[in-house]
Design a protein that fits this description.
Elements lengths: L6 H15 L4 H7 L4 E10 L5 E12 L5 E7 L5 H17 L5 E7 L8 H15 L8 E5 L5 H15 L23 H17 L7 E5 L3 H12 L3 E7 L2 E4 L6 H11 L9 E3 L1 H5 L5 E4 L18 E3 L8 H9 L3 E3 L1 H4 L2 H15 L5 H26 L3 H20 L5
Parallel strand pairs: 3-4, 3-5, 6-7, 6-10, 10-11, 11-12
Antiparallel strand pairs: 1-2, 2-4, 7-8, 8-9
Helix pairs in contact: 1-2, 1-3, 1-14, 3-14, 4-5, 6-7, 6-12, 6-13, 12-13, 13-14
The structure holds nicotinamide-adenine-dinucleotide (NAD).
The site of nicotinamide-adenine-dinucleotide has 24 residues, from helix 7 and strand 7.
């Protein structure tokens, strides 16, 4: 892997720049440049055919200056240690950005869930909890869904945690189903946060979302809800994609019909009334809003100059490399960085955890209104740094977050005497 694509090198560089710009005690960067804990465990699972497969799993607990570690858990065949460490660092930044009392964590199991039966998937999920039981907990580290994990997987995990601990322990993970401690609005929360940011960016740039064109890469949780929510704002979703490729209809796709088609056929490709395109072609389409909602490193120095969107709202984590970010900045593309744009997910996860702890559950409108306020406040705060320091929104995000984290470290007595 080249240095440009190494997520750990990327995030360390971003942290260093922000610490220097803020003139912080060198101890801040020294502490933030690596996770406080990193665990690697293996999960032996009896497969349906009686054989045993031993899956590698990781959990990085980056920093808990602001509160318990919090972050998603992905099931993906290519998960690797540096990726998980980088993602845990972005979680620390993200929680600080939306001002919720959490630190950052991330986990991954090296498995392709699409190749497992439901029973095997359940055994992997429960196995993860059996192996990490001592490292996580409602007051220690709270996982949540991420790529290829979902509410059902969270339910198995919370149940397993409850069985081992002998306590309900329902707040050990968030993103659970509604009938088992889930919080309202969690499903669409990440996308909702992204779309709130896109709307705010539109106001700053004079782009009305009514009639705007949107392109979305990745059509899972973050991507498909982004499509629906952009439609709600009156935008036209002209292209979407998944791991197999994309589809384009310049007159607009019906986002719900594409969701139904993918559920039935396994991919968006082949959707009637649209032409198939590649993921590369999708990123280069003429549009007002581009939402990367798949994986890291999709906009790089190779293709950044081809991006013609006016606003890029990063629902995915780490979709843009620093070199690509610079190119888009020079070309006048307004990039809403991941740690701000996709913070709606962890915000509503926080709401779910608060509700679990209280045993008192909020209605949809309360969640929606509180999420909206969190996102708009965060966007405005970061936009303020962007203007005051004359820096990219991404750099402004790091400045705002690291200032908050450094203040907590200072008051806790973690810095140089
Ligand atoms: P998901 O598993 O629900 O969906 C992922 C989608 O990406 C799928 O449609 C998949 O086909 C597609 N995809 C995979 N590889 C691709 C490729 N090479 N090109 C194009 N599409 C590809 O995952 P998700 O939860 O929607 O997560 C997507 C991104 O959003 C990730 O970067 C994740 O870290 C980030 N994110 C998710 C949440 C959340 O609450 N789910 C919160 C914050 C950030």
């Amino acid at each position: 892997m080249t240095e440009e694509l190494n997520p750990l090198a990327i995030v360390a560089g971003q942290m260093k720049e922000a610490c220097d710009e803020l003139g912080l005690d060198p101890a801040v960067y020294e502490i933030l440049r690596k996770p406080q804990q990193f665990y690697e465990v293996s999960i032996p699972v009896t497969m349906d055919d009686g054989s045993v497969q031993n899956f590698s799993a990781y959990r990085a607990q980056h920093n808990n200056a602001l509160g318990p570690y919090k972050g998603g858990l992905r099931f993906h065949p290519e998960v690797y240690a540096d990726e998980v460490k980088a993602l845990s660092t972005w979680m620390t930044v993200k929680c600080a950005v939306v001002n919720i009392p959490y630190g950052g964590a991330k986990g991954g199991v090296k498995v392709d869930p699409r190749e497992l039966s439901e029973a095997e998937l359940e055994r992997v999920s429960r196995g993860f909890i059996q192996k990490t039981y001592n490292m996580i907990g409602p007051e220690i580290d709270i996982p949540a869904p991420d790529v290829y994990t979902n509410a059902q997987i969270m339910a198995w995990m919370a149940d397993e945690y409850g069985k081992i601990s002998g306590k309900p322990g329902v707040g050990v993970v968030t993103g659970k189903p509604l009938n088992f401690g889930g919080g309202r609005g969690r499903n669409k929360a990440t996308a909702q946060g992204t779309v709130h940011c896109v709307e705010e960016a539109g106001k700053k740039l004079g782009i009305d979302m009514q009639g705007a064109t949107a392109v979305i890469q990745g059509y899972g949780n973050a991507g498909s809800f982004s499509a629906l929510l952009m439609e709600d704002l009156g935008a036209k979703v002209i292209a979407v994609s998944d791991s197999r490729g994309g589809i384009l209809n310049r007159d607009g796709l019906d986002a719900q019909a594409v969701i139904d088609f993918k559920a039935e056929n396994g991919s968006v490709q082949g959707f009637a009334g649209a032409e198939d395109i590649t993921n590369e072609e999708l990123l280069a389409l003429e549009c007002d809003v581009l939402i990367p909602a798949a994986l890291e490193n999709v906009i790089t120095s190779e293709n950044a100059a081809d991006v013609k969107a006016k606003i890029v709202g990063e629902a995915a984590n780490g979709p843009t490399t620093p070199a690509a970010d610079e190119t888009m900045y020079e070309n006048g593309v307004f990039v809403i960085p991941d740690c701000l744009a996709n913070a709606g997910g962890v915000t509503v996860s926080y709401f779910e955890w608060v509700q679990n702890n209280y045993g008192y559950y909020w209605e949809d409108d309360v969640v929606a209104q509180r999420l909206h306020k969190k996102m708009v406040d965060a966007f405005e705060g970061i936009y303020g740094y962007h203007e005051e320091f004359g820096v990219k929104m991404r750099d402004a995000t790091y400045l705002a977050a690291i200032k908050r984290i450094a203040e907590a470290m200072e008051v806790r007595g973690w810095l140089s005497k």
